Amino acid sequence: WSWCLLAASVSPTMAGLRVDFSTLLEPLGFVKVLEWVLAIFAFATCGGFQGETTLLVSCKGVVNKTITAAFAYPFRLNTVVFSAPDPKACGDTWTDAHLVGNFSSSAQFFVTLAALVFLYCITALVVYTGYNHVYQQNNKFPLTDLTVSVLTAFLWLVSTFVWAKALADIKVSTGATIIPGIESCKAPGTTCHFLSVTSMGILNMSVMFGLLNMILWAGNVWLVYKDTNLQSQWNRISESP
């Protein structure tokens, strides 16, 4: 409801302000509300994730000791460390091992886009509910909205597929395949077994929200074109000699 609070905070004496929340029930306004909500979900499901990978290690009298490497957004896995299960007993055979990969650029691209879309939706909703008559009469507003919608749909497409690829690599870099890459696990008398990794179902959902945002913004392009006077103007231009 932050867009309602923002609209309510605008001074009623501002020139041209005509608050009308019924526009939110129309396709253009309703879709913008959905885009606002889905941007929040995309941001939260990716940016709020925290997980850990757990190994079971035995070395020099230390039997079946669990060690963990905690990771989270923005997924700079190369900074995440598996420390020795017992510094005294394993100190001469174990060196701190890092996970592999830095996926921060893909994750931050996705989350930053979601945050910017969230802010733009609030601005658009204020215009729809307070200045819809100006929006319909002035070509600059629909043209700007149309341009932003096309660009945003494209950016959702790119960021979602980039993030989906990064997520697939994150699953590999935190899964059972990491064992052969840990040099300390190859030391004489040391054995390592993969135990578990935090479920990444919520990150899978972030990809789905990205795809839904892309579809909504692609549909928004048509709605902006159809529900404003851009369509009628284009028809007049095409019919003129």
From TrEMBL:
Species for this entry: Grantiella picta
Protein name: SYPL1 protein
Domain MARVEL: 23-229
One GO cellular component term noted in the UniProt record for this chain: synaptic vesicle membrane
Compartment(s) of residence: Membrane
Matching PROSITE patterns: MARVEL
Coiled-coil intervals, chain numbering: none
Gene expressing this chain: Sypl1
Predominant subcellular localization, coarse grouping: membrane
Keyword terms of this UniProt record: Glycoprotein, Membrane, Transmembrane, Transmembrane helix
